[in-house]
């Protein structure tokens, strides 16, 4: 069988598989937690099984190749090309005779990889969490690599402002308009991501630039909060929030995530949380003071990984001993396999609107 045929069979099988799962999932109704919120988490959650990720990427690669009219005679040098025929054949081992991924078999194979510390026959919260987090980090790296590859025209493995925004004119750059998405706004974002001020974004810096909410660069995080505050600040004040602004714009988001994370545990009131965050007691929250609750306000991939972990644990842990046995995972195998949209998009874009 030719490689192309194999790809298209897998693609079709995968597509079918996800559509069936989506329908199946809509019909499912059990459990306690805020379910609607759970679905919101699922939309942004990392993909549990690296094999599914691989199949998805192969499929996307194939679509892109077809779009670009590249046929398979030309060796592919871009991302996805690492999959050899034998790996594709390997994928077949996990398909049922109906051409769907055998999720039972996959979970049996993955279980020992998750059950690591301690290796005790159970997957505890931290074990599940570190697995999912790894998937999120891997996805961040992947999309950053893809962006680097597509924008890096001179092949120096870093991105200049010009490479990133070739459409900006000298005049735009000179004028430095600071509105959202205008030249000055991009330049500021670029400069903050460029932590060594080299004028170029290397891989790490580009990742911060593209995903400020997942950044470890505190300046980047503060920039993001400043930017969001600017857009919600009712009085065009000094970029800080008073209590009413906090209550109106941020608190309910914070509340719903904490509620989700603690499965309906105690959530501090808006007043208490405000007082708690207002370290210098000036009755205003600065971007810096908001940093501690950032993962609740603007969750990135890493925050979603954590919420997804909570979701899976909550759904799967039938005997409520705070860990998953293989049996529990198999009883709930579908919850581990429904994070991919049928159209192959892995992200809903509400928090990435500026990109
Ligand atoms: C999936 O794999 C399991 C474990 O190898 C096997 O017992 C089962 O029959 C397979 N299911 C299907 C539908 O092929
Ligand atoms: C990119 O540059 C920053 C700042 O100099 C440095 O800390 C980081 O390690 C570099 N990353 C890579 C991938 O080279
Ligand atoms: Ca364990
Ligand atoms: Ca740099
Ligand atoms: Ca303050
Ligand atoms: Ca359990």
What's the helix and strand layout?
Layout: H1 3-27, H2 35-44, H3 50-67, H4 85-92, H5 103-114, E1 122-124, H6 125-151, E2 159-160, H7 161-164, H8 170-175, H9 183-193, E3 200-201, H10 203-210, H11 218-232, H12 243-261, H13 270-277, H14 287-290, H15 294-297, H16 301-316, E4 323-325, H17 326-331
Antiparallel strand pairs: 1-4, 2-3
Bound molecules: 2-acetamido-2-deoxy-beta-D-glucopyranose (2 copies) and calcium ion (4 copies).
Description:
There is one protein chain. With 355 residues, this protein is mainly α. It has a domain at 3-153 and 302-337. The chain has helices at residues 3-27, 35-44, 50-67, 85-92, 103-114, 125-151, 161-164, 170-175, 183-193, 203-210, 218-232, 243-261, 270-277, 287-290, 294-297, 301-316, 326-331, and strands at 122-124, 159-160, 200-201, 323-325. The strands form 2 sheets. A two-stranded antiparallel ribbon has the order 1-4. It is flat, with a radius of gyration of 23 Å. The site of one calcium ion (CA) has 7 residues, from strand 4.
């Amino acid at each position: 069988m030719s490689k192309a045929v194999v790809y298209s069979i897998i693609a079709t099988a995968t597509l079918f598989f996800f559509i069936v799962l989506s329908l199946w999932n809509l019909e499912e109704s059990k459990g306690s937690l805020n379910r609607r919120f759970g679905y919101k988490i699922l939309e942004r959650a990392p993909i549990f099984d690296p094999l599914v990720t691989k199949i998805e990427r192969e499929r996307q690669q194939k679509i892109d190749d077809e779009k670009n009219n590249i046929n398979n005679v030309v060796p592919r040098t871009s991302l996805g090309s690492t999959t050899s025929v034998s790996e594709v054949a390997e994928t077949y081992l996990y398909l049922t005779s109906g051409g769907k991924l055998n999720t039972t078999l996959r979970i049996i194979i993955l279980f020992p990889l998750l059950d690591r510390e301690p290796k005790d026959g159970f997957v505890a919260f931290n074990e599940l969490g570190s697995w999912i987090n790894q998937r999120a980090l891997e996805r961040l790296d992947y999309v950053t690599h893809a962006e680097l590859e597509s924008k890096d025209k001179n092949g120096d493995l870093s991105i200049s402002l010009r490479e990133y925004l070739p459409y900006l004119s000298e005049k735009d750059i000179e004028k430095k308009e600071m509105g959202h998405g205008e030249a000055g706004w991009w330049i500021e974002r670029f400069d903050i991501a460029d932590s060594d001020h080299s004028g170029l974004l290397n891989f790490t810096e580009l990742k911060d630039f593209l995903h400020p909410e997942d950044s470890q660069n505190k300046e980047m995080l503060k920039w993001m909060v400043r930017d969001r505050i600017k857009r919600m600040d009712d009085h065009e004040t000094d970029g800080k929030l008073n209590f009413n602004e906090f209550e109106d714009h941020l608190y309910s988001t914070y509340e719903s995530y904490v509620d989700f994370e603690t499965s309906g545990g105690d959530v501090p009131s808006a007043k208490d949380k405000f007082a708690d965050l207002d370290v210098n007691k000036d009755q205003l929250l600065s971007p810096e003071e908001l940093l501690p609750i950032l993962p609740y306000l603007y969750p990135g991939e890493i925050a979603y990984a954590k919420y997804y972990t909570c979701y899976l644990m909550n759904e799967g842990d039938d005997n409520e001993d705070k860990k998953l046995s293989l049996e529990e995972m198999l009883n709930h195998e579908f919850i581990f396999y429904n994070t991919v949209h049928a159209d192959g998009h892995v992200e809903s874009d509400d928090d990435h609107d500026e990109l």
